[in-house]
Design a protein that fits this description.
Length: 1176
């Protein structure tokens, strides 16, 4: 607003008038410029002002003339020491002129403190004499006032000379003198300069803590200390332990930790298997029992160490986030043979570690190590390969990918990729081109993205790929160490050797189905090799073949459906709920079909439903009756991590088809949602190691559409460039550039093909792929070349019409219908096995899609249908006997339908069937939710929402639980298929009409399972405020945190819960429940620590002892549970309580001990009772 200055100008500001009748005041620090004074503004001058605040007592409005649009950042840092000039004197201090035309202020109190300590001195005269305008002074900045844009300074010499002024002046491990200011039960509050910190009781002395130790420290005492840690909340911890203070070797970060170095650490926790050691900066290490002194017989590390003990430990190994320690100096690593990056080798497996293999030469020298995740293209198969490769066995197809440190890092995964074609090598940095795709391995996470190691010959730096260059979604996937990632070069700084990479799927994947099938075929080859090895080495789960009939014994039935079975050779099998009859009983023997094997979790996939088993051929050899089919409808059998298992109908010889769930290495989220239906159409693409491979027809058509569109766009761009360049003189040279101006495809990037720097349009695909000489003769490639020729001739519209013709086919075709192609031939090689032998597809589904004639599509169906049509044409007139037979068959068909409708046990298969069942049972939430699932399976989300609304109207309002189930089902639907707005709207309504706590808890669990952590945290924040007095709320949220591995947040909830709930009994129950959650979902050591803490203060709680023992037994800690029971019965308790403990002890020994142990417990009980009676 506009303000008008008045004649009255004060020493430190000016008065003004605004809005006709209002008066205000502008302080000199709020003038438009620090250089201006109030005298600069004459009476009646109109300027712009903003209201800062109104002084309530005097009703004075304080204004500012400064712009409010932006507040600039201070130019000088807090703690900075400057030479300043006194500019003017104020009633409460002096103003200073700082460098860069900045303004500061010092209060009178600090001016007085800066004067010499002399008696009978006139303070005012001394201040005027020493700090007169224009005098130069040395000052230190204490703070910055953003409203006044004024620096708060001091001229006190002791503060100016102070070295420890802010947290920035403090470093972890630094030796400092601290002054004890306050003594507290938890430790000592100390100050180092102007920084305040804390010394926990554990760090007061080298000796074990006792209250007497603290008595030797007095307030005001100055002692030597080291900075132990600085938290994210800027809390500083110090240590007074002499062994740490006097030792200059401080381990402050994981990066500093090197094998063979020795550092002092503090025992934070002991365990029967070892001890946790903590260093500076909260760096922790594990000192295992086996790495204690070899000359000492240590049976229990809990007796060997005490809490807070300082030990000098050696670093044995550094893993991803922890340090492995030893009390003895580790030997040096075996010297490694030097290998250049890109060298392909074979070797002998040496030592097999938990997460890597050592590889030796035939002479026994170490060649390098193969990290577990470099063994296969599938992260799921890598742990299985660790079992497959044993010491002394030969391992081939390895390639050196990193020689920066010893030992060399070798990779089987990259070795197989780069040996699939001859004369292909990893490139040097100088030969890299913009838009080229390179292979990388994941190294570590960063706040702004991920670090990867690109596989380049002469490049040793890790490269940061920013979050926005990984995925378009907000949620970044969780990567595993050494995971394969493909990246496209966005920019190259050759002078600084800096790469800018992107790993977004649309940038590195050219929508080429052939590339997808090549990746999947590598997975199938690896998987078949493991199964073959398992057969030869008596892996029980690998002794059967897909399609084989096996006798199974039902071991356990699951509540949600499905069961566990045992196969004849003792192998474990799992039957999914949709493949398991509902009439089974435990112990029953039944025949099933062996479908597949889960190599990672070591169980077989079995089908026990006869109606499905009859459709599965016993001979799963990949042979199909009709060699010309290109697409076919299949039944969905199983959805696994990397693939889906489907079943061809009769026209496909009842073969099992494997379908990839990832289109590319960078398809981090996969395409599982595409295969949720019970039946769908697929394209038969290839055959690899007697396995039929396919892909969803809808997905295939979408990918081809995108590929054609991108190629068309690239062709237009190339044509435009050609026209522009033809204007210049060098026509021939320019045309050659245009012909080469295509982006390298993913496969070419693997094999080191170069790409032009001119093309930045970048989706990373070429029209024609380079292939081996052996592959040039393959019919599959010929068909692809025909398509490319068609594109080059301007016939993209013809191909698009073919695709649209396929998409327009009626989805209501008979499930047995199989489309045929006239010109289809056998396909080309899809992938090479690890020995280099080609695996040839028997079907040409990919290529033959583009050669299907429209009129043939309309006229041709499966061979069964054609025979039926021919027969009907021949039989133009039926005899009386034939008509009677047809009538009889029709009557039987109708009768069968009526029986099915009358059978209440048969699951509904149509909307009409559901409606009929709901008429008789409208209050069944189970039936309504199944109705919703029926529509969701058909991707009819709106119909599912309609069913939910119908259910809420139909279910009786008094049936609270049934209605809640519907609301939760609707919430789950919106969470999976809706938007955030629809979910929030549904959530608000659900909270309004149901138990709000139940809705909150279930919603939080849904969001956690979906990986929507930010939305989950938002709901948790709200429910904590609304239901903080409910123990159930705290426990359920903690459980959710534990289940998603957020242990720190879960443990913080315990403290928050105890502050919110004051009832002592409830608090005790909460602590016990948190301990149980820690055992079940978290870390056993933390759970045990909680129980031990409770028992140390409440040793007479018998139920705590028994619960503690039960948790240990569930985790298989039998010896530890026995020790706890021995401690429990050594207490002085009433006979009734001790009887319960002895009874628990006896039952424990009966189940987990020997008969001698049982008798020993009985004897102890008798002795206890005898002593108790004697005292009376």
């Amino acid at each position: 607003m506009w303000i008008k200055t008045l004649p009255s100008v004060t020493n430190r500001g000016l008065q003004c008038k605004f809005l006709e009748d209002y008066f205000g005041y502008v302080h000199e620090t709020q003038l438009s410029s620090l250089k201006k004074s109030p005298i600069y503004y004459p009476e009646g001058k109109v300027v712009t002002g903003y209201v800062l605040y109104v002084e309530p007592a005097l009703k004075v409005t304080h204004l500012t003339m400064r712009s409010m649009e932006s507040v600039r950042e201070p130019k000088h840092a807090i703690g900075e020491i400057l030479t300043v000039e006194v500019s003017s004197k104020a009633n409460n201090g002096v103003y200073l002129k700082l460098p860069d035309d900045e303004k500061g202020f010092v209060t009178n109190k600090r001016l007085i403190n800066s004067l010499p300590k002399q008696a009978n001195v006139d303070v005012n005269k001394t201040i005027k004499a020493k700090f007169y305008p224009g005098s130069k002074q040395k000052s230190r900045i204490l703070d910055y006032n953003r409203i006044s844009r004024l620096y708060v300074c001091t001229l006190e010499q002791d503060i100016i000379k102070e070295k420890t002024f802010t947290l920035k002046d403090v470093k972890i491990g630094e030796l400092l003198k601290v002054k004890i200011t306050t003594t507290k039960p938890e430790g000592l509050v100390v100050s180092a300069g102007l920084v305040t910190g804390f010394v926990p009781n554990l760090y007061l002395s080298d000796a074990a803590y006792s209250d007497n130790l603290k008595k030797k420290y007095n307030e005001g005492q100055t002692v030597d200390s080291r900075v132990l840690s600085i938290s994210s909340e800027n809390n500083v911890l110090f240590t007074l332990k002499r062994s740490q203070v006097e030792n200059d070797k401080c381990l402050t970060s994981l990066e500093q930790a090197k094998r063979g170095e020795q550092y002092p650490g503090v025992v934070a926790k002991t365990h029967s298997g070892g001890a946790f050691i903590v260093f500076y900066g909260n760096v922790t290490g594990w000192l295992g029992k086996k790495y204690l002194q070899s000359d000492s017989d240590v049976s229990d590390p809990t007796q060997y160490f005490y809490h807070g003990q300082v030990v000098n430990v050696w670093i044995r190994a550094v893993l991803e986030d922890k340090v492995i320690l030893s009390l003895t100096k580790p030997g040096e690593y075996k010297k490694t043979i030097e290998l250049p990056i890109g060298r392909r080798i074979a070797g002998i497996v040496g030592q097999v570690h938990k997460d890597k293999l050592d590889v030796n030469s035939k002479s026994g020298k170490l060649l390098g190590t193969v990290p577990m995740n470099h063994l296969s293209c599938s992260l799921d198969l890598c742990p299985v390969f660790m079992k497959r490769f044993t010491k002394g066995e030969e391992i081939r197809d390895l390639m050196c990918i990193d020689n920066r440190s010893q030992p060399n890092v070798l990779s089987r995964r990259e070795g197989l990729v780069f040996t699939r074609k001859a004369n292909t090598k990893i490139k040097e940095f100088a030969y890299l081109r913009k838009s080229e795709i390179i292979r990388c391995s994941f190294v570590e996470n960063a706040d702004s993205g991920i670090y990867v190691m690109p596989h380049i010959l002469d490049y040793t730096e890790n490269v940061l790929i920013k979050n926005e260059d990984i995925v378009s979604e907000k949620s970044i996937p969780k990567f595993k160490l050494h995971q394969s990632i493909l990246a496209k070069i966005v920019n190259i700084d050759r002078k600084s050797k800096i790469l800018h990479l992107t790993a977004r799927l649309e940038k590195v994947f050219d929508n080429n189905v052939k590339a997808t099938m090549e990746l999947f075929s590598r997975y199938i080859v690896d998987r078949k090799q493991l199964i073959s090895y398992g057969k030869d080495n008596d892996w029980k789960i690998c002794q059967y073949n897909p399609g084989e009939r096996v006798k199974c014994k039902v071991e356990k039935l699951a509540k949600e459906g499905g069961c566990l079975v045992t196969l004849p050779n003792g192998a474990q099998g799992l039957v999914a709920s949709h493949l398991c009859p509902t009439t089974l009983t435990e112990g029953q023997k039944v025949e099933g079909v062996y479908l597949d094997v889960d190599l990672r979790d070591e169980y077989a996939e079995i089908c026990l439903k006869n109606n499905i088993n009859q459709k599965i051929s016993k001979n799963q050899d990949g042979m199909i009756n009709n060699q010309k089919i290109s697409s076919v409808r299949v039944d969905n059998l199983l959805i696994k991590t990397d693939y889906a298992l489907t079943l061809l109908r009769h026209g496909g010889n009842r073969q099992i088809v494997y379908i990839p769930l990832r289109l590319h290495e960078n398809d981090f989220f996969g395409c599982k949602q595409t295969y949720k239906q019970k039946q769908f159409k697929i394209c038969i693409c290839a055959k690899t190691v007697n396995s039929v491979l396919g892909i969803s027809k809808t997905l295939f058509m979408n990918l081809e559409k995108k590929r054609l569109k991108k190629e068309k766009h690239k062709k237009e761009v190339a044509t435009t460039k050609a026209k522009k360049k033809s204007i210049n003189s060098n026509v021939d040279k320019k045309n050659r550039v245009v012909m080469e101006d295509e982006t390298t495809s993913e496969n070419e990037a693997m094999h080191g093909n170069e790409v032009s720097e001119d093309d930045d349009e970048g989706i990373g695909s070429k029209s024609v792929e380079e292939t081996d000489d052996d592959a040039d003769t393959d019919d599959h490639d010929k068909v692809d070349n025909e398509i490319v020729e068609k594109l080059n001739e301007g016939k993209d519209a013809d191909i698009e019409e073919d695709i649209e013709a396929h998409e327009s086919e009626g989805e209501d075709m008979d499930g047995e219908a199989i489309e045929q192609c006239n010109d289809s031939k056998e396909g080309s090689d899809v992938s090479d096995s690890i020995h280099g032998s080609a695996t040839k597809p028997v079907l040409s589904g990919i290529s033959s899609f583009f050669n299907v004639q429209t009129e043939n599509q309309k006229d041709e169906s499966s061979s069964d249908e054609e025979e039926q049509i021919d027969t009907m044409k021949k039989k133009k007139k039926l005899t009386a006997a034939e008509r009677a037979e047809l009538a009889k068959k029709e009557e039987e068909r109708i009768s069968k339908i009526e029986r099915e409708l009358a059978d209440a046990t048969k699951p509904p298969e149509s909307a009409e069937h559901f409606d009929r069942l709901l008429v008789g049972n409208p209050n069944s939430s189970e039936l309504w939710t199944k109705y919703m699932s029926f529509h969701i399976a058909s991707t009819e989300i709106d119909k599912a929402r309609t069913v939910a609304k119908r259910a809420l109207q139909a279910i009786n309002a008094t049936l609270v639980e049934e209605r809640l189930n519907i609301w939760l089902a609707l919430l789950n639907l919106e969470n999976m298929f809706g938007t955030k707005d629809t979910f929030e709207k549904t959530f608000e309504d659900a909270v309004k009409y149901n138990d709000s706590l139940a809705v909150f808890i279930k919603s939080i669990q849904m969001l956690a399972e979906a990986g929507k952590v930010a939305d989950m945290e938002e709901k948790i924040s709200k429910v904590r405020k609304k239901h903080k007095a409910e123990p159930k709320m705290w426990l359920e949220i903690a459980k959710t945190y534990y289940q998603i591995n957020k242990f720190k947040e879960a443990r913080n909830l315990k403290e928050a819960a105890l502050k919110s709930i004051l009832d002592k009994k409830t608090q005790m129950e909460l602590i016990v429940r948190f301990a149980i959650l820690e055992f079940k979902y978290g870390e056993e050591e933390h759970g045990a620590a909680i129980f031990e803490t409770i028992l140390s203060s409440e040793p007479r709680k018998v139920n705590i002892w028994t619960t503690y023992v039960d948790q240990l037994v569930k985790k298989g800690k039998i010896d530890q549970a026995r020790r706890v029971l021995e401690r429990s019965v050594c207490q002085k308790l009433p006979l009734k309580s001790i009887k319960t403990l002895f009874l628990k002890f006896r039952m424990f020994e009966e189940q987990h001990g020997t008969s001698e142990a049982v008798e020993a417990v009985k004897l102890k009980a008798k002795e206890y009772v005898t002593r108790a009676l004697d005292k009376h």
